[in-house]
Specification:
Structural class of chain A: alpha/beta
Helix content of chain A: 40-55%
Strand content of chain A: 5-15%
GO cellular component, one term (chain A): periplasmic space
CATH topology of the domain at 64-259 in chain B: MetI-like fold
Number of helices of chain A: 20
CATH class of the largest domain in chain A: Alpha Beta
Number of strands of chain B: 2
Order of helices and strands of chain B: HEEHHHHHHHHHHH
Protein name (chain A): sn-glycerol-3-phosphate-binding periplasmic protein UgpB
Shape of chain B: globular
Largest interface: A-B, 38 and 29 residues
Strand content of chain B: under 5%
Radius of gyration of chain B: 24 Å
Organism (chain A): Paracoccus sphaerophysae
Oligomer: heterodimer
Number of strands of chain A: 11
CATH superfamily of the domain at 64-259 in chain B: MetI-like
Largest sheet of chain B: 2 strands, antiparallel
Number of helices of chain B: 12
CATH architecture of the domain at 64-259 in chain B: Orthogonal Bundle
Helix content of chain B: over 70%
Largest sheet of chain A: 6 strands, mixed
Structural class of chain B: mainly alpha
Signal peptide (chain A): 1-19
Shape of chain A: globular
Subunit structure (chain A): The complex is composed of two ATP-binding proteins (UgpC), two transmembrane proteins (UgpA and UgpE) and a solute-binding protein (UgpB).
Radius of gyration of chain A: 23 Å
Distance between the termini of chain A: 62 Å
CATH architecture of the largest domain in chain A: 3-Layer(aba) Sandwich
Distance between the termini of chain B: 32 Å
Amino acid sequence: MRFLAAASLALLTSSPAFAATEVHWWHAMGGELGAKLEEIVKGFNESQSDYVVIPSYKGSYPETLTATMAAFRAKQQPAIVQVFEVGTGTMMAAKGATRPVYKLMQDEGEAFDPKSYVTAVVGYYTDPEGNMLSLPFNSSTPIFYYNKDVFQKAGLDPETPPKTWAEVEDFSKKIMESGAAKCGFTTGWISWIQTENLSAWHNQPIGTEQNGFGGPAARLSLNGPVQVKHWGNLKKWADEGVFMYGGPTDGDNAPPMFYSQECAMYMNSSASRAGVVANAKDFKVGFGMLPYYDDVAGAPQNSIIGGATLWVMEGRPAEEYKGVAKFFTYLSSPEVQADWHQFSGYLPITRAAEDLTRQQGFYEKNPGSDVGVRQITLNEPTENSKGLRFGNYVQIRTIIDEEFEQLLAGKKDAQGALDAVVERGNALLAEFEAQNK
Amino acid sequence: MKRALFGNRLLPWLLLAPQLAVTAIFFLWPAAQAIRQSFLREDAFGLSTSFVGLANYAALWGSAEYLNAVRVTAIFAVATTLLSLGVALVLALAVDRLVRAGKVYTTLLVWPYAVAPAVAGILWWFIFNPTVGLLPYVLDRVGYDWNHLMRPRDAMILVVLASAWSRISYCFLFFVAGLQSIPQSLHEAAAIDGAGPVKRFFTITLPLLSPTTFFLLVVNIVYAMFETFGVIDATTEGGPAQSTNIMVYKVWFDGFIGQNLGSSAAQSVILMLIVIALTVIQFRWIEKRVAY
C-alpha cells in the first residue's frame, strides 16, 4: 500500500503542471526530423507552464491528411496538423474545418507581423488578399547538384555548374564521350521539379486563375510551349542516355544513380542536401541553381517551394487556440527557425532566421546550403511563380507522372502527353469544384 | 425435431449472438456504409454532401482509367493463377514421386506462404530494382534491359511473379494432398494395360485432381483480385502509367490518396458484387459439376 502511494505520488509530481492545456499536433516527420521536431516541442513545453504541445507521428503526408479527415468527421481532430503543399487546395476549400493562421493570431492577440516572413515561402499559403492561412513549417525548393570529380575527369571546370539547359546537354555529352560517367543527369520529382518548378522558373502559368489562387474555377494550362519543349527534350535526352528517369512521385531511383556516380548531375530538393553530402562518399558535390532556357524572356524568375505547413483545425475548446498561437510565435522565432533550417536543410520562413544563420557563419561553412534561399528570392514572385493551388492535386501529380511515362514509352509526344495531363487533370478539378459547392 | 433440442427459444440466438455481432459490425455495417457512400458526392471533410444517384457508377463506366483497371485486373488474375497453379502442380508431382525426402521438400516449399505480402513485395522490389537489384544486373549481361519503372510489361511480370510466388506454396499443399488421395491401384492397373506416365497423368491424375484444381482456381482468382494490395503497393504502386493498377489498388488510391470517397465506394461495391458472384460459382456450380 505504501509502495502504491509512493508510486502514484511520483507519477503526479513527474507529470507536467496540472492545469496545463493539452494541444495535439499531428505530423508526418519520421526519423531524425521527427526527433528534432520533438526536441523543438520540448523546448516550447519547458519555456512556459500553461500549455503542453503533444506531437504525434501519423505516417506519411497522405496518411496524416487522411487521418485528420477521418478524425474531423468523428469530431476527434487535433488542434494542429501538418499538411503537405499539394493538400493546400483541399484544406482551403474546407471552410469551417480550418481556422486561418492570421485570424488565429489576431483573435488570440499574439504579436504577428506577416511582413517578417519570406514572401516566396508564405506566398504559397496566403489567400488572394495576402492573408496567411497556414504556418509554413518545412519548406524546400529544388536545386541542382553535380559531381565535381566527374566534371574534372571530363575536362570541365569543376567550379562551374551549367546555367542553361543547353549547357546541361553540352556538358552531359562531354561527360559521356569522355567516359567520366554513364549518364548526364537524373532528377527526383518529374511533377514538382521538371513541370511545376520549370513553369515558375520560366514565368509560365501552370493553371488559370493565378495558378488556382483565384478560386476553385481554375483549370490547368501547363501545356504551353516552354513545358512542351522541355518534356520533348527530356524524352530526346532519355533516348540518347543523357537523362535517366528515376521513377514516379519523388523518383526514388534517382538518388542512387547520382550517389553511384552513374549520373553526373542531379536535381532534387534543397532539403536533400545533407543526405547527398553524406552519401557522396567518393566524390565532391557541387551545387547550383536550376538550369533554364535562355531564349525564354524573363527566365530565370524564381523557383517555388514544396514541403508542408501547419493548419489549425476548427472545433477544439477555446483555450487550446491561445496555446496554438503561443506555440506558433515560438516556432517562428529566429532561434528556433535558424536551428531547424540548419539542421534539416528546409528553408527559413523568416528573414530574421536567415540573417541569424548567416551571422552564425553557417552558409560559409556549408557551401550550397544557401542556394535554395537565393533561388526562391531571386525575383519578386509573379502570378506564375507564387506557387499553385488546385484541388485533387495529389491525383493530378500522379497523372503528370503517368503521362510522362507514356511519353518515355513513345506512346505520346510531348504535346500529346501534356494535353492529356490538362484534360485528365481538369476533369478532377471539375469534380473537386462540384464536391465543394 | 431439431428445435426440440433447445427448450428455450432464446438460447440459440444467444449462442449465435457473438458471431452475429462480429458479422454485423465488421461486415454488414461497412458494406452498408459503402453502398450509401457510393450514391453521394462529398468533400473530404464531410462538410457538404449531396445525393447524386448513380452518377459515381456512370462516371466509372465512362472512365478510361477504370476500364484499364478492369483489364489489368483480368490479365493479372489469370496470369497469377495460371502461374501459381502450374508451378505448384509440377512441384507436387515431383514431391509425390519421392518416397523418403518428400516431407522435407514439402516443408521447404510451404515456407514462402508464411511470408507477409508486404515483406515479399519489398524482397522482390530489391531483387528487381533497376539500379541496385540483382536480377536486372544479370539480365543486362544477357542483353535484356530490365526496367519496370518505364516498361509496363516488365512491371506486370514483376507483380505477377511476386504475387504467384507465395501462392505456389498454398496450391502445392492442396495438390500434394489431392495426389495422395488418388488410389495407387488405378495407376497400377493402367500401367498393366500399357499406359505410359504421360497418358496416365492426363487420363487418371488430372481428372481425379479436378475438384482440387477447381477449388484452387476460384480461391486464387479471389486472392489475385483482392489480397495482392501489399505486393502492388510495395513494388510498382500501380505504375508505370497505370499498367499494374488493379481494381482493389485503385479503390484505395482514389479513396485514401485522392479523397474521392464516392467513386471509391462505388468501386468497392462493384468489387463486392464480384466476390459474391465468385462465391456463388464456387458453392453452386463447382460443387455440382465436378466429378469426384
